[in-house]
Amino acid sequence: MDKFRISGRRKLSGNVAISGSKNAALPIMVASLLASGKFKIENVPNLRDTRTMAKLLRMIGAKIDFSNGEMKIDTTNAKNPEAPYDLVKTMRASIYVLGPLLAKFGKAKVSFPGGCAIGPRPIDLHIKVMKELGANVEVKHGYIQAECNQLVGNKISFQKRSVGATANALMASVLAKGETIIENAAQEPEISNLIDFLNKMGANIKGNGTDILRISGVSKLNPVEIEIIPDRIEAGTFLLAGAITKSEIAITNCIPEHLKSLIEKLEQAGFKFEIKNNEIKIIPVKTIRPVDIITKPYPDFPTDLQAQFMALMTLSNGKCFIEETIFQDRFMHIAELNRLDADIRIEKNIAIINGVKSLSGAEVMASDLRASAALVLAGLAAKGETIIHRIYHIDRGYEKIEEKLSNLGAKIERIGD
Ligand code: UD1
């Protein structure tokens, strides 16, 4: 298991280009199963999760070439409707194959998913969607087994907004008979990217960017080309790297609109920004003001930046509250940040952060993807050396993070066990 060694307190400078979005690439890769033929997907990040998804699609029968951010997928022989435990256990997004396999083949057998250890992550909504579209679904021996003659459009009203269940509902309903209406749909930019892809393939989805989606089923979809949007979570993490090291850096190849909630909070903390087209420059401040956040679905503050924002708040000049409303146990970074001399305590789903004057390096353990990013940020700001164990988590979602940070002037190296 690799580790990171970080020597903190170095100023960063320069530009960093943001990679394609992991969470947009994964459902789009899977949606290619809905048509037979050759797809080209540009700006795909080379990450453990995208490589795992490629493996899963290969097991289903797709041919995949992946180099320099371009993924070619040939789904002509993708006909095996089974997603086995060995692959699915390592990545929750494997559940995405449920909708397309059912829609295309009338059959799917998908193992219960794994993924980040951030509390119970049920898949009841995914199963409910398939049932509402007319499939018979059984859960047996750790597998979801679903069957149908043809899926039939219906009204799907989500009590809770779910990115994954919205994506699965879209992918299942585009080939269903008749109309499907999805109410309280997720509005994340990654969902918009998926809708653009499906519509390009010939689907008929209306309401992109809103929480009500109307899908008129079509009988066939065609292979197309698409570009993955920039990763707003990676972009946010780099802005926070600039903020916590009090450095002026610019992120390029991003969509500033997707980072509005973070920028607003950073402005409240005192930071200033220069924003143009697809570039954001952060201007540092001497004193970081404490700012409260509550994580909520897009366009509000993303749970995927909660841990990294908390790392910044450990160095504010006061007290603030961070409330996590999406995932119950997404506070595993707190004990590790406290090892670096942060002062954070938890009351239920609220973290109470008392800003400290400085952090100091220590050995810490990454517990999940975004928690690892928070520890990297804290390590960059801490006095002395920080060793982060189990960084395989970070490789799931950040492309070449140590290379990008080193190019900005950070001292970070990967060491093998
Ligand atoms: C996606 C993202 C993840 C992000 C999360 C929330 C991907 C691959 N992952 O995860 O990075 O943190 O959105 O923005 O895009 N829920 C249920 N039942 C279900 C499904 C979800 O109760 O069947 C709950 C979850 O436990 C959570 C909430 O709904 O409390 C939102 O989760 P969801 O949006 O589904 O997250 P994911 O799609 O898994």
Written overview of the protein:
- The protein is of the alpha/beta class and 417 residues long.
- The protein folds into 2 domains: 3-18 and 232-415, Alpha-beta prism (UDP-n-acetylglucosamine1-carboxyvinyl-transferase, Chain), CATH 3.65.10; 22-227, Enolpyruvate transferase domain (UDP-n-acetylglucosamine1-carboxyvinyl-transferase, Chain), CATH 3.65.10.
- Helix content is 31%, strand content 25%.
- The chain is built from 14 helices and 24 strands.
- The strands form 6 sheets. Strands 22-23-1-24 form a 4-stranded mixed β-sheet. Strands 2-15-17-16 form a 4-stranded mixed β-sheet.
- Helix 1 runs parallel beside helix 2 (48-60), helix 4 packs parallel to helix 6 (163-173) and helix 8 (232-244) runs parallel beside helix 10.
- The radius of gyration is 21 Å and the shape is elongated.
- The chain starts with a strand and ends with a strand.
- The model has no long low-confidence stretch (mean pLDDT 95).
- The site of uridine-diphosphate-N-acetylglucosamine (UD1) has 21 residues, from helix 1, helix 5 and helix 6.
